[in-house]
Design a protein that fits this description.
The complex is a heterodimer of chains A (232) and B (120).
Chain A (H helix, E strand, L loop, with lengths): L2 H32 L4 H10 L3 H12 L4 H12 L1 H9 L8 H9 L3 H11 L6 H26 L12 H13 L3 H16 L8 H22 L6
Helix pairs in contact in A: 1-2, 1-3, 1-7, 1-8, 1-9, 2-8, 3-4, 7-8, 7-9, 10-11
Chain B lengths: L4 H25 L7 H7 L2 H14 L1 E2 L2 E2 L7 H9 L2 H16 L2 H17 L1
Antiparallel strand pairs in B: 1-2
The chains are: A mainly alpha (232), B mainly alpha (120).
Chain lengths: 232, 120
C-alpha cells in the first residue's frame, strides 16, 4: 500500500470517531467564552494546546482567576498520560525526520494514539500515512467545533446523547485490546481506579488508573502464563 | 474574578509548550535512551489500561455525574448503575465490539440502544 492509500484508510477509520468529538469541541469553545476568554483566546487555546480535557480544566481555572502556575500545572498533569502514548508509539516512528516527528507529537491525542496503535499491529501499513490520516481530521474537526462553540455556543439537541459517542469509540478499541490475562488485568485495574478517582483534583483519576493498570498488567502476565492461559 | 488577558495568553503559550514537550518526549528520545526490557513490556499494557480508564468512568455515571461523586452508599450506587441506560447500552456495544471489532458498528448500536432506552 502507498502512503496515500494508508492516509485515506486512516481518514475512513476515523470518520465515525469525529462524530464523538463534536460535542466536546463545541463545549470547549462555548465554555471558554462563558469563562470570560475572548474568541481569539479560545481558539488560541485549542490550536496551541490541542488537548480537550486539559483545555476544559484550564478554562475553569482561568474563569476563577487562578494563578498562572496552577493553570499550567493542571494542564501538564491532565496531559501527563501522553508520556505513555509517546513512549508506546515512538518505536513506530523512530526512522522519521525530526520535522515529521514534531508533527506526530503535536497531533498526538487519545483517539489518534489508540486507533493507530490498533492498526500498527498489522504489517505493511505506512505508519506515517495512516497516523496522519487519523490525526489530521481530528485536528480539523476539533478546531472547527471550537470556533462554532465560540460563535453560537454548544447547542446539541438534549435528546441526542452525543457525549456518549466518544466513550463508545474507546470501548470499540478497548475490547480487542484485551487479549490475555495481562491486558485484562490492566483494563480491570485501570478502569476501576479511574472510576473511583473520578473526583480527584487535577483530573488525576485518569493517569492514576492508567499507571496502576500498566503495573497490574505486568504483575498478572506471569500468573496468566502459569495458568496456561496463553492465547498469543 | 476572571484572569487578565496577559495571564490567559501566558497560560496558552506555556500550556502549549509543556503539552508539546510531553507528547514529543519519547518520540524524540526513544532511540537515544536504552529502554529496559521491563519498560518495553509495560508499554504493551498501555492501550488496555488507558482505554479502560477513559471508558469506564464515562459509562459509570448517574445523571451525568461520575458515580464516585454521586455520594450514594456503595450498594445503592451499584443497584442504580445496574439499571442505568448508559451501562446497558455500553454492555450491548461491548458485545458488538467483540464480534465485529468495528468502531462505527459499535457507536451506532450503542447510541441506538441508549436512545431507545431513553424513549421507553
Amino acid at each position: 500500500m502507498t502512503l496515500r492509500d494508508d492516509f485515506l484508510a486512516g481518514v475512513r477509520d476515523v470518520a465515525p470517531v469525529l462524530l464523538g468529538i463534536v460535542p466536546f469541541g463545541l463545549v470547549a469553545g462555548a465554555a471558554a467564552v462563558e469563562a470570560g476568554l475572548t474568541g481569539a483566546q479560545a481558539v488560541g487555546l485549542s490550536v496551541v494546546v490541542f488537548a480537550g480535557a486539559s483545555q476544559l480544566a484550564a478554562i475553569d481555572l482561568l474563569g476563577d482567576g487562578a494563578p498562572l502556575a496552577v493553570v499550567v500545572g493542571t494542564v501538564v498533569v491532565v496531559n501527563l498520560r501522553m508520556v505513555m502514548y509517546s513512549a508506546s508509539i515512538a518505536p513506530h516512528f523512530r526512522d522519521l525526520a525530526a520535522r515529521w516527528k514534531a508533527l506526530v507529537a503535536y497531533l498526538l491525542t487519545d483517539q489518534a494514539y489508540a486507533m493507530s496503535l490498533t492498526r500498527f499491529r498489522e504489517n505493511g501499513v505506512s505508519r506515517r500515512g495512516y497516523y496522519l490520516g487519523v490525526a489530521a481530521p481530528l485536528w480539523v474537526v476539533w478546531q472547527i467545533c471550537t470556533v462554532v462553540g465560540v460563535v453560537v455556543g454548544a447547542r446539541v439537541p438534549a435528546w441526542l446523547p452525543l457525549d456518549f459517542a466518544l466513550p463508545l469509540v474507546f470501548l470499540a478499541l478497548l475490547v480487542p485490546a484485551v487479549e490475555d490475562a495481562g491486558t485484562a488485568a490492566a483494563a480491570l485495574v485501570g478502569g476501576t481506579l479511574a472510576t473511583v478517582g473520578a473526583g480527584l483534583p487535577y483530573e488525576l483519576g485518569l493517569p492514576l488508573g492508567a499507571v496502576c493498570g500498566v503495573l497490574a498488567g505486568l504483575l498478572a502476565a506471569p500468573v496468566g502464563r502459569a495458568l496456561g492461559g496463553v492465547r498469543r | 474574578m476572571t484572569a487578565t488577558d496577559a495571564v490567559v495568553w501566558a497560560a496558552v503559550a506555556l500550556g502549549g509548550v509543556a503539552t508539546f514537550a510531553v507528547r514529543a518526549s519519547f518520540v524524540f528520545l526513544y532511540e537515544r535512551l536504552d529502554i529496559p526490557e521491563l519498560a518495553e513490556r509495560a508499554l504493551g499494557y498501555v492501550p488496555a489500561a488507558v482505554l479502560a480508564a477513559l471508558v469506564v468512568p464515562a459509562v459509570l455515571t448517574l445523571d451525568g455525574v461520575p458515580v464516585a461523586e454521586a455520594g450514594l452508599p456503595p450498594a445503592e450506587a451499584l443497584r442504580t448503575l445496574l439499571g442505568s441506560d448508559r451501562v446497558l447500552a455500553a454492555g450491548v456495544a461491548a458485545v458488538v465490539a467483540y464480534y465485529t471489532e468495528d468502531v462505527l458498528a459499535t457507536i451506532v448500536v450503542g447510541m441506538g440502544v441508549l436512545l431507545a432506552l431513553g424513549a421507553v
